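Consider the following input, taken from an annotated entry for Exocyst complex component Sec6 (Caenorhabditis briggsae).
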Amino acid sequence: MDADVEEAALEQVAALLQRPDQLEKLPELKKRADRKKLAVEAMLRTGVQGQLEGIRTAIAHLQTASEDVTAISQGVADIRERLKPFPQLKEKLRELRDANARHGQYAAAMENLKHIFNLQATLQEIRDALDDDKSGGNLLLAHKHIMDLERARDELLAEVHKMNETNTEKEQNLLVNFFKGVDVVVAELSKNMWFILGRTLEMVKGNEQGGGPQQVVTCLRIVEREERIDNFYMDARSKNSSAFVPPGRPRNWKEKALRSLEKTVVNRVDGNQLEDRSLNKAWLARYLEVCRNVIMDDLQSAKVAIPCFPPDWQIYDRYVNMYHSAVCRKLREVASDRLEKSELVQLMSWIKFYASEDMLGHPKLKINAQAILQDSPVLTRSTLNSLCDQFVEMSREDLKLWLKNTVSHETLDWNKNVRPSEDNHGYFYTDLPNTVFGMLKDTVTLAKEVSVEVIPSIINLTIQEFHELAGKYRDAFTAYKTDYFAERGRFQEFTSNIIAVANNLHTCIESTEKYKQQIRLSMEGEQNSATSMPTPLSAGRRTAVSQQQLIENMDALNLKWSNAASVAINYLREEVIMDIAPSLAELFSKKWLIGSAAPETICMTISDYYHDHKHLRPVTRSALLMDLQFRIVSEYLKAIETKRLTFTSYEERATAGKQMKSDVARLDHLYAEFASSDDMADQLPLLTSIISAAGEVISLKDKSLLSLEATSFARKFPNCPAELLAAILATRDDVGRSDARSLADEVLQHVQFHPKDQIFDQLFALRQQESSEWLPSIGMANVFKSDFISRLKRDN
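Applying the prediction step yields:
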């Protein structure tokens, strides 16, 4: 160790004296080392001295402790010596101890002799006090006497309990039987108290005779006394399992008092149902309204009663929970029965109203209604889903019946030959659209009363029923049309009725489109809302439906309405075509060439019918007039293709061309009059230009210019079939069939990429239909369907 110290010292010196010039500081370094050495030695001396002082103190304490232990041991030995005679002394004093116990029993008996000898008189005083209580008497006095008697009984029983002898049970039974009258008056007292507490709210309001709130406070004071007595004996029993507890304890009067209050609440909720469905159809609405009034009135009274009750009872919160529990139990019982639709709506509406500011959420009540309903909802989620599904099914049955009756009523009106009503614009209509969509509006309004979650399901089932309605409506006016064409003189108002049908269907399309737009806007609003949830619609409900599905179903419904509207237009067209069929058959024929009234007859007939057709809405009227134009123009094309007329000279061709131009001018003038109506807005494109163009080709005198004329025709109508153009060319007396086909193919080849008018595609397709009488087919009713819907959307 010395070597290590020496080595460390050498290293330290070497570190201090690394350069020759540092030797000059050697004396200073020595002084510094000496001072440091002296300081360390002083510190060591101080530390050693402190340790020595501590050791001296510890030795002194040890010496004192040793002396104390010796003294204590001697004292304990003396005590043990003095206690040795005590066991013998206990045995010698046994008789004295027994005498003392008997003296204690006798003393207790002596102290309670007054109560023992006056027991019956005291019991009678208690009964008198209880009887007087009906007129505002003395519950406290009765309880005081009862406590005196119980104290006497319990002291005697406690002394018997201390004896711990085998025959004490007999003595206990003797005392219990002697004081059994006390239990009777206790029962009477409790009965009176529960009667008073059961009418707490009435007494607080001053509606009961007697002491009013004072009686309630008296009962509560007695309950609190009894609770303290119960707690005293229960605490003693918890500390010592063999401690004495009087018979009948604990009485738990606080719990019984609360049960009495709860029983009253249940009776207040249940007892207000004085009717059922057999006595009054509105029984549930009346009952729920009475419940609302009772609950609001009682809860306000409960706030007034707060000062009467001890704070730890939290009586107002208890009343709120008791009323809520009673309402939940009663409404769940009601919901478990088979309810009618109106009852179901009343129930669900009342449940929604239950937490509003007009009831539990009323500012005066200061109740956190949402928290209560979150912890304990009035109806379980499964029950709510079941009720919503029931409402949907009931609504479906009602809609089926209403819609069936609506169609039946419409059919009866047709058979009455009564002209339909006109709106402000002069359009025929019936009440069917308003009735049908009024049903939807009313049903949705009811659905809002039930739950907003059920609205999509209601709209969806309504759409489904409207699908069936559209089919039944179509079948009904189809049967009406069949009867009419079988005996046209029987139904004078057929045309006006079918016009009203077409207008009704147009209105249905508009209404459906409006509902669809509302749903789409609702969807966009939910998507843009940061807090919106993806269409929940009650998970677990079997009738739930997504909003996207609603949009798709409405599109399908609009297509169904459109189909039915097209059929109605078709029947109107069929009526006209039936009248002008003979004239159509004369077009582009020998009779027509030499001078026929067929074109004028056609125009006059259409004009006559227009007096009724002007009562159509513009879109449907446009569809009808365009379809008639299709039929007339296609009849010319059909006549040309079937070679109804062949020419033998230029003069005949020139006459035909002139007649075709005249017919076109007459038709154009007629349709110009139709289009000039204020509500048409030029919605009638003309197709007659193809007749004029065909007339130009037919009447051309210079054959050398025929190719140029055919090319001009093809440029105007690039989608013209080659067969049709070849037929037009072949009607000339100077062109053969093969040459006509070759020329047609050649000129159409040059214009195959020119823009085509789709309306002429429909015209060229129509000309190929086979029909001996040229009556319109129902299949062609869809010719304008796409235009019909697009125009309707544009108009809206």
